[in-house]
Each structure stands twice: as C-alpha cells, then as structure tokens.
Design a protein that fits this description.
By secondary structure, the protein is mainly alpha-helical. The chain has two domains: 197 residues, no CATH class; 40 residues. The chain has ten helices and two strands. The protein has a two-stranded antiparallel ribbon. α1 packs parallel to α7 and α7 packs across α8. The N and C termini lie far apart (49 Å).
C-alpha cells in the first residue's frame, strides 16, 4: 500500500484515535449529543490536526528540543483560534452548540500526541497525511456515536425526526448515554474481532511492543501507573541535570 494512503487507513481503521487508541475521550463523550455535533467537532479537530502536523514537521529541525512542547502548544493554539473564528463567522449555530469545547481542542491529546509521536519525526507531507487519517478516524467515531445517541435519545438523524416522541429514551442524549453507546460499540468491536484497544492478543501485543508501536489501554492499570511513574522519574532526573 502507498505509504500516504497507509497513514489514512491507519488513522481510520488500525489506529483509530477513539475506538482503538482511546484518546480524546472528553470531546468524544461531551459533544456527541447529535450526529451533526460530532461531525462538526471532528472536522474542526481534523483541520487543526492536519495543519499542526504539517507546520510542526516543517519546523522540527528548527525548534530546540528543550522547548518543543511549548512550541507545539503555540502552533496548535494559533490554529485553534483561527478555526474558532471561522466557525463563529460561518457556522454560528454549530459554534454556539459546541461552545467551550472548540477552544479546548488545544489540549486534545490526539493533536499533541501526533505532534510528538509522528510529526516531529517525519516529513511534512507524510505528517499531513497522518493528520488527515487521524482526523477522519476521529470524525467517523464522533459521528457514529452521535448518530446512535441522537437516534435513540431524540428519535432523529441529522435533525430529521424518524421515531415518534413516545419511543425516545432521553438518557442517551444526557451524559450517561455517551458511556452506554461507547461501551456498546466497543463490545461490538470485540465481538467481531475488529481493531480495538481491548481485543489485542498477547502474541500480537508483544510483537507490536517489539516493533515499537504504541498500544491502547490493555486494562492493566498497575503496569500503566508504574510506567507513568518511571517516565516522571526520568523527567525529574533530566530537570535536575539541566539545573546543574
């Protein structure tokens, strides 16, 4: 497969940020009360992902290693501001609905994660396609979750009512509904052996670790916390060396 198309395929299927890597859960659960809200948030995040990956990759040899995270945040925050102003000007209804979650794209771990894990190590064009793939995967996930919640909770799809009000289950457009739908979709992934953060076999997990691939949640919280503590200790040690 062409390496550029592979980045798009990986982002949508193999490394889907929501269903496989389980990143960006805050906007995923909060903005998917309808399909159009999920679609809008996904497209806004995609725009920021594509251009942040492109710019960070282009500047990767110029940005000093010690200030790379603040530099990434400045780039991402500038792009989010542009997207926010464009949405306010041209899609005000969606802008008002999404509200605070638009500026919060700045701290979306998908964007920072791709900047650090991919864009900082690859060419601008390849990084741009990685952003397209991840963005489309995120958009697809949000739209599917929003579709399910809107259909069951409001009896409508993209604003068109198709189920009478007597059959609406309103909890699905409330906060708990997001967890119910995400859990049900993850269960279906596992049932049909689709790519998922929770259905990777032990052999495949070990092979991916040897290859240096990042994995999603494996349910082993203790090891995850130990790994986080190890990273924190290394960071503290490096900070002490810098001070000296």
């Amino acid at each position: 497969m062409n390496k550029y198309l592979e980045r798009i395929y990986n982002g949508i299927i193999k490394e889907n940020p929501t269903f496989v890597i389980m990143l960006g859960m805050c906007p995923t659960l909060a903005t998917t009360t309808s399909a159009i809200n999920g679609f809008g948030m996904g497209l806004a995040t995609t725009a920021v992902l594509v251009f942040s990956n492109l710019l960070i990759s282009a500047l990767r040899k110029i940005i000093p290693d010690k200030v790379r995270i603040p530099a990434y945040i400045v780039v991402i925050a500038s792009l989010v501001t542009i997207v926010q102003l464009l949405m306010q000007a041209y899609v005000q209804g969606l802008y008002n609905t999404l509200g605070i979650y638009i500026p919060l794209i700045v701290v979306n771990c998908i964007i920072m994660g791709r900047a650090e894990a991919y864009a900082a190590k690859h060419s601008p064009l390849l990084s741009m396609f990685d952003g397209i793939g991840m963005g489309l995967g995120f958009t697809l996930a949000l739209t599917v979750i929003g579709f399910c919640r809107e259909l069951i909770g409001s009896g409508s799809v993209f604003g068109y009512e198709i189920i009478p009000a007597d059959f609406h289950i309103s909890i699905f457009v409330m906060a708990p509904g997001a967890f119910f739908v995400l859990a049900a979709l993850t269960a279906l992934q596992n049932r049909f052996k689709a790519p998922s953060a929770t259905n990777v076999s032990k052999e495949e997990r070990e092979a991916r670790k040897r290859a240096g691939e990042k994995l999603g949640c494996d349910g082993n919280c203790q090891n995850c916390m130990l790994h986080a503590e190890e990273i924190a200790a290394q960071a503290a040690k490096k900070a002490e060396e810098v001070k000296r």
